[in-house]
Amino acid sequence: MSLIVQKYGGSSVGSVARIHAVAEQIAKLAGQGNQVAVVVSAMGDTTDRLVELAREIAPDPDLREMDALLATGEMVSTALLAMALRRLGLKARSWNAMQLPIETTSHAGRARIARIDARQLKQDLESGIVPIVAGFQGRAANGDLTTIGRGGSDTTAVALAVVLEADECQILTDVDGVYTTDPRMVPEARRLDRVSFEEMLELAGQGSRVLHLRCVEFAARYGMKLRVLSSVEPGSGTLICQEDRKVEAPVVSGIAFNRDEAAITVARVPHHPGVAHAILKPISRAAIDVDMIVVNAPREERVDFSYTVHRDDYEKALELTRSATADYPGATVEGDDRVAKLSVVGSGMRTHAGVATQLFETLAMESINVRLVSTSEIKISVLVSEKDLERAVRALHRAYGLERAPSS
Ligand code: ASP
Ligand code: MG
After folding, report:
1. Which residue out of 41, 48, 69, 154 has the highest number of ligand 1 atoms within 8 Å of its CB and is therefore the one to mutate?
2. Ligand sitting nearest the alpha carbon of 212
3. 41: CA distance to ligand 2 center in Å?
4. Whole-structure pTM value
């Protein structure tokens, strides 16, 4: 018998029909002799609608009341799902964060889970009851309702799985797993049977939107196995777990990309210690995140350097950089907000050379210019023109043979 925590996202419980279908699926898993605890999100786009409603009442709504409002969405879906399960003859009970409780820090709208009292849930599981828990919400020390950040139900599910010492935490969603790259861009993209936590963090962090980043970090920290599955089609999905050191890791597992990038290049600033700091300090003061930074080799006591920011921060960063360099005669600032980043990710890169060579060779054959490069142990990222992104991803997907299942 296994103990499984399942999480159903908003679209999976978006209608009465979907709630009944989810109940059938839970009943089947329980019928196979498993203990099942369930976490749900709010139905469909409920949370978005609640946010709009609040804005109609007040342009800048009070944060405590905002959390009180948003937490209602998940309470609706837990109760409805429990009713649907009972109708199938199963014992089921809904639980919200106040009842258990799920204790969080007090930062309204972005609280962090601090402790979960799992006694009620354990009792339910022991007595053959399926507990249905509201995701995304918590209770602060002063008794206020809190929420843990948009998309946070994934994280609630992992936290519950950890305290219940579940065998697996399953995230049921509208895709059937994690792919080698976005199948909407590359039709040959293949579902991965398994990826390591580290690879998933790179794939998720680089803009692949299947899972909440914090939930993967949490699962990695506690070694909780995560599985991404379709809530509609049967299948084994993608298992995200610790790297299996006995099996040779794939050199390249996937390609992630992100279009929301902008690059700024500062040319011919004096090559003195502290110049880069003087230019970047106003950027961090303005709470703008800098991603890639590249400093070129100095020539004649002058140096060029480039950095990237989110496209939304581009205008502001450009302006700050222009004023920070105004005192350096001859220095120039140029920017481009039509750039995109792609990242080739794979644990096997640690022990295999040649991944970067193949990347540059492939892009050269496609006549695609590389603007910036950054690497980690298991990732190589390059910045290219946005217009070249799709061609680059397709060519690299082919070059690394990602459409083929790895021979094992
Ligand atoms: N309902 C919340 C949101 O839409 C939490 C979640 O879906 O995980 O952000
Ligand atoms: Mg939602």
Report:
1. 41
2. 1
3. 5
4. 0.88
153 Cα–ligand 2 center, Å: 8
How far does the centroid of ligand 2 lie from the alpha carbon of residue 71, in Å?
11
DSSP structural state of residue 396: H
Closest CA to 10 of 76, 97, 98, 89: 76
What tokens were used for 369? 């210019």
Alpha helices in 88-212 (DSSP H): 119-126, 153-164, 197-205
CA 207 to ligand 2 center in whole angstroms: 18
Nearest ligand 1 atom to alpha carbon 10 = 7
Task: Name which residue sits closest to atom 9 of ligand 1, judged by CA.
Answer: 150
Pocket of ligand 1 (CB under 6 A): 9-10, 41-42, 47, 73, 135-136, 150-153
Q: Give exposure, 70-90, as e/b (b: 16+ Cβ within 10 Å).
A: bbbbbbbbbbbbbebbeeeeb
- CA 156 – CA 141 distance, rounded (Å): 18
No. of helices (H) and no. of strands (E), the chain: 11, 18
Give the pair of three-digit tokens for residue 109.
């709208």
Q: Work out which ligand 1 atom sits closest to the CA atom of 152.
A: 8
Which ligand 1 atom sits closest to the C-alpha of 45?
4
**What domains, with CATH codes, occur in the chain?**
3-174 (3.40.1160.10), 255-399 (3.30.2130.10)
Which stretch of DSSP H or E encloses residue 118?
A: none
Q: Per-residue pLDDT for the chain (408 aa), expressed as one digit of tens each? A: 899 999 999 999 999 999 999 999 999 999 999 999 999 999 999 999 999 999 999 999 999 999 999 999 999 999 999 999 999 999 999 999 999 999 999 999 999 999 999 999 999 999 999 999 999 999 999 999 999 999 999 999 999 999 999 999 999 998 899 999 999 999 999 999 999 999 999 987 666 567 878 899 999 999 999 999 998 888 999 999 998 777 777 899 999 999 999 999 999 999 988 888 999 999 999 999 999 998 888 888 999 999 999 999 999 999 999 999 998 999 999 999 999 999 999 998 988 889 999 999 999 999 999 999 999 899 999 999 999 999 999 999 999 999 987 755
